[in-house]
Amino acid sequence: MKNICLIGHGMMGIWHSEALQGHPDVRLHTVVGKDLQSVSAFAEKYGFANASNNLLEAVNQPDIDAVIIAGPSESHAAMSMAVIKARKHLLVEIPLSMTVESAETVVEAAERANLALAVSHPMRFRPERAALLQRIQRGEETPRHIHGRFFIHRLVNIGATGIKRTWIDNILWHHSTHLVDLGLWLVGGGDPEKAEKRIRNVKSFMSALDPHTGTPMEIVILIETHDDQTLLATGSYYGKERIYDTHVVTEKDSYRLDELTAKLTTGAGTEETITEQENAWAISRDFVNALNESRAPLVTGRSVLPVLRVLHKVQAEWDSQHGTQDIPGRPLVQLQQPVM
Fold this sequence. Notes:
This is Oxidoreductase. The protein is of the alpha/beta class. It has 2 domains: 2-121, NAD(P)-binding Rossmann-like Domain (Rossmann fold), CATH 3.40.50.720; 123-275 and 301-322, Dihydrodipicolinate Reductase, domain 2 (2-Layer Sandwich), CATH 3.30.360. It has helices spanning 11-20, 36-46, 55-59, 76-85, 100-112, 127-137, 171-187, 192-197, 276-293, 305-322; strands at 2-7, 26-32, 50-52, 66-69, 89-93, 117-120, 143-153, 199-206, 218-225, 230-236, 238-250, 254-258, 263-266, 269-272. The strands form 2 sheets. It has an 8-stranded mixed beta sheet with strand order 8-9-10-7-11-12-13-14. A 6-stranded parallel beta sheet has the order 3-2-1-4-5-6, sandwiched between helices. The longest helix has 18 residues, at 276-293.
């Protein structure tokens, strides 16, 4: 029986809680958030035994076995280090961190402590992609072009729960992480580092700071490999039509997955697949099962470093044009003491 502590109770906190409710090997022990009243209400609704607004006290409870971090993106690295210091296994929501340097620090610290470090990269969990990956690994298909799109209207910082948040997304270090990682993972046949070594060129555009939000709102990333494969990620926070999909083209077929409608279109037609929420449930369940089976989780911390190194190049190009600076949702220092 694993005692689980959850940090954060937004949309992903809800989905992780739903996934582990009724799991025979899980006790939902403690949920942590800033406002004790709302955290207590969440604990009662989803079956946590305890609620807390003190992160360090919560994760250092001796009977906690593992921690799921679903707080604001810019807090992930600092929260991860606090959990590692408490010597607990951890599952971190995407992104692991918003600088490559702090991500490397987290990965190395977890490995030195012999702790499991899983990262929530949901696009690697989809069952239809598992079948495609197996064909790629067997040499039956080769990705030629992979295009991921994320368009949403986010001039006001309201998240998926419909509640106005005190923090803001980052189009490069949050949403582009999903899309670029998928491309590297498939091109590398399940090994993003292998794909990273084959990169010939990375080209990018990221807009200047929007005067209302203070963040870049548009992005294009184009990656070329030495094998003439292309990975493309595009997105905008100005988009009135919400779009979240990926299109994988091989020499034999194409696979366009609409994450929002849960529909997969191939050369054979369109079929329904599992929802984004159902897919997310697999992440926390894999984490718990990995701990029980003494194996590595499906997505390890080290396996996500290649995508963060690519994003680092894009950020460095933007910094050279606009100046290195703190922006809302992405402070330059990621390893400050966690607040909560």
